[in-house]
Amino acid sequence: MLQRDLGRGRIRHAYLITGPAGVGKETLALNLANALLCDNPVDGDACGQCRACLLTSRATHPDLLKVTPEISGKRIRTGKVKIEAIRQLIYDVNLKPVEAGRRVACLIGFDAANDQSQNALLKTLEEPPGNVVVILTAESADALLPTIRSRCEVIALRPLTTAETRDFLVAGHAIDRERADLLARVSGGRPGFALRLAHDPDSLAERQTTLAAVRSLLSANRVTRFAMAERLAREATVDEIQATLQLWASLWRDVLLAMTDADLPRTNLDFDADIAAIARVVTPAAGRQALAALTRTANLLGRNINARLALEVMLMSWPTL
Ligand SMILES: [Zn+2]
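Above: query sequence and zinc ion SMILES. Below: predicted holo structure tokens.
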């Protein structure tokens, strides 16, 4: 669709690429940027041979501006978009293009941006300089301000089938068929996520353990929940705790989605059994309360409060299976 539009010279000022983590949003954003900067595009796609394509492939094209969230946490990562980075980007896009006929700004993972950063970008989207294209990526369009969303052409990416993901891993990355099959299933059809897991088996194991803890915590008594709070507070850094809370929140969101039959992509497809089991016995109100407690605790942890106490309060507010 994009190639056809670009081939006909139909270029929007702003695109928003959405889809679950690891589905290929950033890859598509950069390919689109490449096509927009290429000196000799072929049928709306980059030629791959000109000077612009060479610079883009080396991430050194002066007219390609990119902002990614600052990542913290070793195993499970969380990201923040710095307001200073957005301000710098806005300054840069308003300068004249250096090499190409336009400047392209890629804002990767823009759902990690707070309202202040989003509002800063809004003016650029409202009155875009004529030769600027802004490409945003976010897991869900709902995470962005409606005023941002409405100014973008939204391109929603969905996961591939398990077979397509497996074939991609086997053909493109020389991963043996059996392992590719497992990665395809665990990744829920998200090729980028599958590749990350393929290159970092530890993070796969860590993620499984963290997610599996939700169901067992729900069947656990007060003593076990307090022990978990104590252990997390003692062994993990604040960033690691935040990352754990983020993973748990993603599972609770999946539970709430399972309750409503909403046609929205779920994040933890390999935990379908746990999600269904929790969704069967927990009321929607209790599910929303558990998710709200996670958000509240994540906010509190940013303010230097006693982590163990905050985690205890949070886990006690979770329902019991
Ligand atoms: Zn080219």
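Residues 203-316 form a domain with the Zinc Finger, Delta Prime; domain 3 fold (CATH 1.20.272).
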